[in-house]
Design brief:
heterodimer, A: mainly alpha, B: 7-stranded antiparallel sheet, 6-stranded antiparallel sheet, 11 helices, about 30% strand, disordered C terminus, binds protoporphyrin IX containing FE
Amino acid sequence: MPEINEIMGQYSELFMLLAAGTYTVAFIAFAWDLARSSRTLRAVDLKAATAAPAQASAPARVPISAGTSARASGDRAASGVGGPAGFAERPSSAAHRTGEDAAGAGRTAGTDMDYAPARRMPARVGVALTMLGALIHGAGVVTRALGAGRVPWGNMYEFLTTGAFVVAAVFLLALIRRDLRFLGTFVIGLVIIMQVAASVAYWTPVGHLVPALQSYWLIIHVSIAVLSSALFTLTFALSALQLVQSRRQKTVAAGGAARLGFMRVVPSALSLENLSYRINALGFIGWTFTLMFGAIWAEKAWGRFWGWDTKEVWTFVIWVVYAGYLHARATRGWTGTRAAWLSIVGYLCVVFNFTIVNQFFNGLHSYSGL
Amino acid sequence: MSLSDAPETAAGPVPPPLGPAGMLRWAWTQLTSMRTAIFLLLLLAVVAVPGSLFPQRPANPALVTQYIKDRPEYGKILDSLQLFDVYSSAWFSAIYILLFISLIGCVIPRARAHWKALRSAPPRTPRRLSRLPEYGTLVLPAESGVSPGDAIRDAADVLKKRGYRVDIRDADAAMPSLGAERGLLREVGNLVFHTALIGVLVSVAIGGLFGYRGQKIIIEGDTFVNTLVGYDNFTPGTNFQSDWLDPFAITLDKFEVRFDRESTRQFGQPIDFKAAVTTRESPDAAPQQQVLKVNEPVYFGGTGIFLVGNGYAPIVTVKDGDGNTAFSGPVVSVPNDAVYTSSIVLKAPDASPSQLGFVGFFLPSAIKNQEGVSYSFDPDPLNPQLNLNSYYGDLGLDTGKPQNVYNLDVQNLTQLNGRDLPAGGIVLDAGQSYTLPEGKGSISFDGLKRYIGVDIRTVPGQEGVLIFSLAAVAGLIVSLYVNRRRVWLRAGAHVDGRTMIEYGLLARGEDHRLAPEAAAIRARLAARWNLAESDPAAAAAVPARSPKEH
Ligand code: HEM
């Protein structure tokens, strides 16, 4: 058994603290960006409205799915087909589509999340600080692993700090492919909450693993659980935004005043739904593996692969909720807002499984380290 | 689902036709609809929750008994609602059985339909391709010499290379077309996933029917032989025959425990449990030295032995009032906390003139607090000590009623020792002995052994569960990431000799990569016909008209 290096452990805690501080500044930058961008966009809209009637600001935000067809068939919109926007995607509820058509063009960012080339200085600062924070955070995770001489996810503190790192890293990776900077406030906000909860409620010094956790299955099972939870964290933010955006679009479509100005930086509800569907599908596969590897581990440790232990029950419940979500998307009448709610309920179950079940329900999984 | 591809299973409720057969058919349609399946699925999640809120009999029967006893008003009611046996309750079973019937009722017709789809040509070319979500046109100049028929054959070639099944229509007519399809594997994956779920359930049921599990406590030096009488606890599956038990034997030679001595906050937390055992496959097989640890079970064929508990077994000798040895040997104590403060019960029914009973605690590292109460400060046996009360009388063991060995019913006994009695409680350090009051005999604490608790199990369907689960994941990934797409292409000759081509794409289900696919196909076709497509604006400038309209 490797030695415990408490100095490394202290370095790790210092890094965690520094990372949380950096994230906090990034959070402020992202929030500032939301506020400023919404003001800029409103100015653009106003100018467009005065320069040319309607649709003037559309070209910059033509959804990518239009592709060739939009270019090749300029007359189709007029022919009553209504444009191909979003057609290749699973149609959402009627409210969604009218929402997208009515409000999508002028009042929210486009499906491709490819914004007009306006420079968003605060957002850039936010991303840069998030990168810096993630770098420090990563150092914290690595020093923790070195200090304990094993993988850094053996108790709740480690699960949370490593999980928060994965959330930040996945967010940064996603940024390479898509401009998700509008999510920064929400994702980095969640990361900060996770870091604070880890240090305040779940702090545990570096230590050895209890015999029940000494297995290579810890490496496999928990790492996939951390990764899937991180993905579900992202979709939680997306689905929550989707609900707000969907309401806002309905209000706007009904001729109401568009409040919550910052939401105009956020893409349409349908784009949010499609993105969160794709991430949730990935998360669901991960969670399926979590469940399976957990069962294999349970067979090794306790002699049965499934015993309805509290933790097993809740892992199963989460799995079923997300399976329900995937099915809901395949069923008419259950997309849009209802699917978003399922995704949110799924995430709440993840949080419940981690906090309440670990601490207050007695079962075989008493490895919280508290 | 886009356009015409919505599954009929998603249809809303239809009023039932008259007649019992019609009613049945209606009920079946309802049950096997996707909507019902989602509802049942979510319901299953909801009804699984009480199992984590209430103690469950299969996991901990003693806890359930205590729970009901502590709640005289409603414990019994909860019990009659099967809230302590959630996962074998009528309502839980009803929901998952309905769900799986629904699943079977859905998989079979879908499999049949897909089998047909696999063997039939892609659907006919729609009249107005321009209505499809992805649509585009290409124009071949007259001097290229590519006729509409050639163009369709070329396109078929290109599409085949991209993995499409292609069907050419009206090849020699004025406006030939083709229909192409790929990604039929998506539905296969989906069917595999759902079928595998059924497989998982069947395998689990097989384990429940033909498996067994048992518990045994083995003290250092003792041997367990795998026969029915050897078990402390035995739960056979519904169809299990006890002569299926393999006659293996396992001897616990030594059990070592290591506690954390480095960390300050986790000081004394266990970091290693290691049981050195000698095993024999059968009575006349050669003995084998093996190590049994947590997470590292020992297997005899399909039967696994799992280390699930451990504790101390103080060696005690009891002499009765006549001076004869009434009991001698290790007594299993049950640890109650992290420092192994352990409850201990000792019954000496062979003592005479009266039977003797002892109840109390074993403390591995005893120390007194300010009030003079002993407690244990460490899980290692640094200062082992027994703190006991003693009783005499009829232990009630002769009635033949089964008794819990870890519980002494003192109702019909007379107390000899105790904190409140003049004689006080019995406190024995290692090696000490104590003479009981009233000439009832004596007790001595002669040594200390450790014991392990093992679970012994056979679960026959286990490999099936694993294989079906893996199949389910594979099917899931395929059904989520293979995209099912259709492409149609139509060609026609313009009066001025140019060949006009229009194409359209349609996705079935979730497909965010349909537009890139359309662009890729377009690029391949353009390359094939040497069309200059470097400037997309030029391509876009071509008016989008179907050849027919020229
Ligand atoms: C009567 C029962 C069921 C029906 C009718 C049904 C139907 C379907 C259908 C039609 C799809 C394809 C969706 C699409 O093409 O996009 C699907 C996918 C799926 N089903 Fe089921 N299902 C049933 C039961 C279950 C159960 C019990 C589970 C697991 C607990 C499950 C998990 C899944 C998953 C994970 C997918 C993949 C998601 C997707 O492809 O969109 N299904 N199911």
